[in-house]
Amino acid sequence: MSCCYVLHKVDFFFSLSLACLFLSFAFWETAIDRSSSSQFHIPDQFFADLPACLAIIAGAVEGTKAEIKELLASRRRKTTLSEDFYINATKDCAAYIENRGFISVPLSEEELNFPIAYSIVIHEKIEMFERLLQSIYAPQNIYCVHIDLKSSLSFHKAVKKIVSCFPNVFVASKLESVVYASWSRVQADLNCMKDLLHSEVQWRYLLNTCGTDFPIKTNREMVKALKVLNGRNSLETEATSASKKARWQYQHNVTNRIIRTDVRKSPPPISSPMFSGNAYFVVSRAFVKYLMQNGNGEIQKFMEWEKDTYSPDEHMWATLLKSNNHSCSSLSLSRPFIRKKKKKRAFFS
Ligand SMILES: *[C@@H]1O[C@H](CO)[C@@H](O)[C@H](O)[C@H]1NC(C)=O
Ligand SMILES: *[C@@H]1O[C@H](CO)[C@@H](O)[C@H](O)[C@H]1NC(C)=O
Ligand SMILES: *[C@@H]1O[C@H](CO)[C@@H](O)[C@H](O)[C@H]1NC(C)=O
Fold it and tell me: TM spans, by residue (predicted)?
């Protein structure tokens, strides 16, 4: 596989990464100023977590399962913070930002000069959203948050309140009702892409994330990895298996869920072959512009054609990126997020 990044297989629990949050920030601190690493000190209460956390960060959990289990058990909480908590806590933004541990100044010149854009698509679990935002937040970056139209009013309100505390975080100007595995998931990212291109921040790369993502790299590490890409995009792609071809060979009917019909679709209106791949990408500003500006209308036609396919996010980005010049290279960059496991995520296999 010459093209794009290789995912680490992550079959441990998402919540572990939350337990390691403190440690990753501790490492982040050291990374900022290596000269002071001798002063790097892990408080005693976190010391026992170190082997399990290091294993998670390194993606090598074999042999540390027992420690990880213990770590997980020690961090399990029965309740999570409510929407009301955030609606109240954000009345005083300065206090909120400080109390909840958001970074408020760029941590290095290198990061300051390399802003990253995020498209964050969420629908529930306000505390997980806050933790995700807090963990990827840097004041020089820009964040577009797409809230599912179907989400509760109080969820919308709490997200808007959190977002209102930051000049560089906003809710997408157009919101979709997202149906699992349907076009609406792609449209949510497209809405954010459009808004992000209009923002004043001259971001270099865009990463899309969702509410069950959690980063395993610091902003500084991401900047370094993105610099290595040097303008190229990164996405895990593969040739389409026979079974996955049905996803775009038949029309699908979307109501509150997506159902395959017996009606065959026309072939894809694109000269390059179809690919399958990850729904989550790392793309350059130039690529996003190219998508949005769409000189000859071919992309628009292809996107229209994609709208009644199954899980277009798992073939549209892969196909567009593979057919595009700025795209793939022999680089192999791990996606800097782990995901809480869903029932099925075929593209990881
Ligand atoms: C609301 O927030 C303030 C300040 O953060 C806090 O002192 C107060 O206890 C909160 N009230 C509720 C009902 O949570
Ligand atoms: C698609 O769904 C609509 C609304 O439920 C229904 O009326 C229509 O017959 C469906 N089409 C096919 C081809 O199943
Ligand atoms: C893509 O790459 C080919 C070969 O390197 C080049 O001839 C072509 O002009 C490029 N197209 C675009 C749109 O950059």
Answer: 12-28
The residue among 336, 323, 319, 298 whose CA lies nearest residue 205 is: 336
Domains of the chain, residue spans: 1-10+79-349
pTM of the model: 0.81
The CATH fold of domain 1-10+79-349: Spore Coat Polysaccharide Biosynthesis Protein SpsA; Chain A (3.90.550)
Query: Ligand 1: which residue has its CA nearest to atom 5?
Result: 89
Predicted confidence (pLDDT) per residue in 12-64, tens digit: 334 445 445 545 544 444 444 444 444 456 667 677 778 888 887 777 778 88
DSSP, residue by residue, 181-199: TSHHHHHHHHHHHHHHHHS
pLDDT-derived band at 342, boundaries 50, 70, 90:
low
Answer for the pair 206, 235: CB distance below 8 angstroms, yes or no. Answer: no
Mutational test site, ligand 2, from 253, 256, 265, max ligand atoms within 8 Å of CB: 253
- The SS3 call for residue 319 is helix
